[in-house]
Amino acid sequence: MAVQTEAISEQVLPELFSAPGRVQYDLTSDLSAKINSPVMAIYAEEGQKVSRGDLLVLLDGRDLSSSVATARASVGTASEAVSAARKEAALERETSQARIRQAEAGVQQAKANLGIAEAGLKLVLAGARSQEKEQAQAALTSAESSLALAEAEWKRAERLEAAGAISLRQKDLAKNALDQARARRDQAALALSTAQEGARKEEIALAEERVRQAKVGVREAEEGLRAAKAAALAVGVRDQAVKLAQGRVSESSAMLNSSRVMLGYTRITAPFSGRVVKRMADPGSLAAPGIPLLTVEGGQARLHASVPERVVNSISKGDPVIVSLDDTPDSRMNLTVSSVLPKSETGTGSFEVRVNLPGENFRTGTFGRAQFKVGTVKALLLPPKSVWERDGLNFVYRVDGESRASLTLVTLGRRFDQGIEVLSGLKSGDKIITSDLKEVQNGRKVTF
């Protein structure tokens, strides 16, 4: 009988270690609320794919919307208060500066009046000379000019007081300055008349009285200037009011921002792209912090394999690995090791080796196996087609020295891509029949 044969030999093969593992995604998040609120709507179902930022759960935010509106109104009111306080401060500052300028002008005018009165007294006492007459004439001209200025200030004070920009007292001071300017004009006129006509006893007494009144006018004007400067301190009070109003704006703005943040908590979105794997709530449920509503997973799918300590030193990142999953038993994926965790698993002494899986259509928790090459081994291999089984035992037909088929019991070991390992029953160099096994008879001669 003609058959095909093959001489078996010992081969050097990679030694593989098979480690169990389960599929996990590197991103998993239990989504829960940050506030206590009823669930209004849920926009995702289990198994649904989602993108980062997608709205998944909507909580009842009507009370929070009202808080946002109230806070927004408070900001508007506080802003209006700031605007009003600034206007009042600006008006107070302008009015205060006008009072100080008016008081300073009054002091200068009072000192000028004193100078005129003293000069007039000297003229009266010394008698008039032509030069003094000219000076008296010049003093009269100056007094008339001051009178014109005082009249203009009086008219301006009337307008400011009518507008509420200055007090009645300030108007009275302007009227007093006008009266003094008229008096100085009269004094200057009298001094000129005296210089021209010569002094009399009554005129000397009158000139001395004018000097005294002029000194009193200087003191009153200086007191008025001090009062105006003291009143200017009220501007600081107005500025402080502006700062307080601005502080209320800041507080209201902070409350508005806080209310907006709280309102934002009513919208629960996907933290990353992936899919919903578990739903634990329905519309109408009460959401609370720490109570999961949905579970979302995404990112990279990996097989987390558990490897014993005696093997882990033979495995490195980037090493080839063959992965098979129980839910697809016929699939064998040639992949590479993505990472080897340096810390052993608590209580087991094993180490976790992770292998990135291609794609994203994997189920979390699926059982699988990873085969790692951890060395080399010598093995005697049989071609699978040469083995046949009977009653749970494995046999082959070996060709003996007389070219007869000899039924031989063999013990098989591991399976490799190149063949099946023979543990006993054959030796290297034996010839075995690989064809027509059903036609071969034990002890019959064969040709090949």
Describe this structure in words.
The protein has 448 residues and is α+β, with helices and mostly antiparallel strands. It has a domain at 71-245. Helices cover 44% and strands 31% of the residues. The chain is built from six helices and 19 strands. The chain has helices at residues 62-126, 130-163, 168-197, 201-231, 233-264, 309-312; strands at 5-7, 10-32, 37-42, 49-50, 55-59, 267-269, 274-279, 286-287, 292-307, 320-325, 328-336, 339-344, 351-356, 367-382, 388-390, 393-399, 405-416, 419-424, 431-433. The chain has a 15-stranded antiparallel beta sheet that branches. It has a four-stranded antiparallel beta sheet with strand order 6-5-3-8, with no helix packed on it. Helix 1 (62-126) packs parallel to helix 3 (168-197), helix 2 (130-163) runs antiparallel to helix 3 (168-197) and helix 3 (168-197) packs antiparallel against helix 4 (201-231). The chain starts with a strand and ends in a 15-residue tail after the last strand. The mean pLDDT is 84.
